[in-house]
Amino acid sequence: MKIAIVGGGPGGYVAAIRAAQLGAEVTLIEKENLGGTCLNKGCIPTKVLLHTSERIEEIKNDYDKIGIEVCEAKLDWAKLQERKEKIVKNLTGGVGSLLRKNKVTRITGEGEFKNKNQLRVKTEHGTSVTVDFDYAVIASGSRPVVPPLPGTDLPGVITSDEALCLGEVPRSMVIIGGGVIGAEFAAAYSALGCRITIVEMLPKIVANMDQDIVKSLKEKFIKKGIEIHTSTKVESISRTSAGLLINTSSVEGKRFFEAEKVLLSIGRRPATDGLGLENTGVKTERGSIAVERNMRTNVSNIYAIGDCIGGIMLAHVASAEGIAAVESIMGKKTAIDFKTVPYCVYTKPELAGVGLTEEQAKSEGYDVKIGVFPMYGNGKAVIECETEGLVKYIADNDTGEILGMHMAGPRATDLIVEGALAIRLEATIDEIISTIHAHPTISEALQEAARAVHDNPIHI
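Now predict its structure.
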């Protein structure tokens, strides 16, 4: 069985390794670095910036509370950038090693379908190679959306790609878009000394998550001096002698903001141009590749996964889809439970959620019961000076089944897996309560919030 995979991001390379494990002859085609957006321009490098920014905040705000005196915390931006590049290089190199170990053939170049059984690859050396395949998996990823606004082509107007490798920390930045990406860059650059203004067209920031946990982050942002303007539309960007001028409008009227940099952070769109899909008959919908069950397109031997199909644009979802696709190709029964997909924001406090939000559960007709426990009631959170946030359960009042779990606080992005597993196993609130959680840990807050569903938490 010959399988060709177009794209070496977290969907493509995971699919390649799994296919090789199942005995397929695999060729992976990637035009840039292995690891895709996640390893090179997204998940990993942004977390490197956030890690340093959080340590600086701790030194400034928390160290004196825990008995450590530090005269000054000074940022070495060049060294931070060097560390970021080293981590990215190490991780992408590790992906290459895994591919070699699993005997995956890698071609560096740009792939284009000639027909439904052949790819033409223009290699990095300018030559052309034809790859024959029985099945193909498209994992071409996504790219930042650049809105059709006057002024987006001005110097100083950047996307998340450029925001990771600026020559220095800017004095000020307007972030257009208050979603996950915008929130993470706001947290990082604000802690590093940049004056941040968020402009969001929707009524809320991080609108896809339960707003009770987002409230903790919004309050922290305001406390740090970050300006947040929701229900506000950007009309244009222009150049002035002082920098960039952002013209906005809202129900309150027009307003102007000045900044050294403008970060366009309104989302990402599937990268499907140049794939030659028209030569295969593969259908697309508004730029996204349309897929059926187990990620198969309308062409029976071509599958598509990850950001290029739209939907949930998360690295861990792409990896799961890649495994499902190749297992389906190789004749294994497989399925993805999208109800268990965790959503994470790596700010401080961290935000994480899985399953239905309170608003979603009510709109779907559930008789819901809510349990909430604040982080200031958790001993480990108090010790670590991270008392902002809470744990919140959404449960079915009739059966006690957990419909959603949402958390703001320390290590929320790690602990959310307990909620994901609970939903996967159709667990009830009582089963969380009866599971002993170690003390002292942040995880105790998960058990206390479960107790709060029955109005009997112990520690508040």
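The CA atoms of residues 263 and 439 lie 42 Å apart.
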